[in-house]
Amino acid sequence: MLQIGSFSFDSRLLLGTGKFPNFDIQKQAVEASHAEILTFAVRRMNIFEPSQPNFLEMLDLSKYTLLPNTAGASTAEEAIRIARLAKASGLCHMIKVEVIGDMKTLLPDPFETYKACEQLLEEGFTVLPYISDDVLLAKRLQELGVHAVMPGASPIGSGQGIVNPLNLSFIIEQATVPVIVDAGIGSPADAALAMELGADGVLLNTAVSGAEDPVKMALAMKLAIEAGRLGNEAGRIPKKRYASASSPTVGMVSSS
């Protein structure tokens, strides 16, 4: 069970809803993923314009928890304003804080992210900040009171997978809140590795929406996350320099 603040979830896959070819494929992919948390950029949604197409209308929202994000914000003030807009629309009190500091790499601004989280926590939001794989920032945000930390595996939409498993493992080891790996996942193998390292969940979007078959990839990601979680709980064997026979060497029939 994944516990984020007062929310509980069976699925550990959080699915972004942008960049799908069309609403029908998006809906099928969401269903195939079995995700319970759907994230979207508030600034890209016509949440106050009923006449405009809206993917939320395609879904049975009783099955999902919506996680609006503050994508597009470059300052704490912008992120706070977007979060308030999402709350005012009645979508959810849970918010993914995303404050981009560099438009080329789309890496988050740690200072503005911290400021935004501090204010939103005071206003009663369930706060999930998107951060780089900064071990100390993750620790400081936990101490501040955020409900999860979301370190990127690699730059948003890059598909590079986990480029720094060591830092990610450090964040997971000292975590007091759920660690949800966010950004850069490219394949089911990347998602499985994140879970094997001990992450509590994975948030992804482009890896599914940009796949040749988004629906199949959504299912593949679901299964990979489940497999990775089970692998972590089972405990893998240690790596050895040389071979180790899998069959017993005692009691064997002699050739003499």
Concise description?
This protein has 256 residues and is α/β, with parallel strands linked by helices. The chain has eight helices and twelve strands. The chain is 35% helix and 17% strand.
Strand content: 15-25%
What is the strand tally?
Answer: 12
Query: What low-confidence regions span 5 or more consecutive residues with pLDDT below 50?
Result: none
The helix/strand class is: alpha/beta
What value does the average pLDDT take?
91
Structure description:
The chain is of the alpha/beta class and 256 residues long. 35% of the residues lie in helices and 17% in strands. The chain contains eight helices and twelve strands. It has helices at residues 23-33, 76-88, 110-122, 135-144, 165-173, 188-196, 206-209, 214-234; strands at 2-4, 7-9, 13-16, 37-41, 65-69, 94-97, 100-102, 107-108, 126-131, 150-151, 180-182, 201-204. The strands form four sheets. The protein has a five-stranded parallel beta sheet with strand order 5-4-3-12-11. Helix 4 (135-144) links the parallel strand 9 and strand 10. Helix 2 (76-88) packs parallel to helix 3 and helix 4 packs parallel to helix 5 (165-173). It starts with a strand and ends in a 22-residue tail after the last helix.
What are the SSEs and their pairings?
Blueprint (H helix, E strand, L loop, with lengths): L1 E3 L2 E3 L3 E4 L6 H11 L3 E5 L23 E5 L6 H13 L5 E4 L2 E3 L4 E2 L1 H13 L3 E6 L3 H10 L5 E2 L13 H9 L6 E3 L5 H9 L4 E4 L1 H4 L4 H21 L22
Parallel strand pairs: 3-4, 3-12, 4-5, 6-9, 9-10, 11-12
Antiparallel strand pairs: 1-2, 7-8
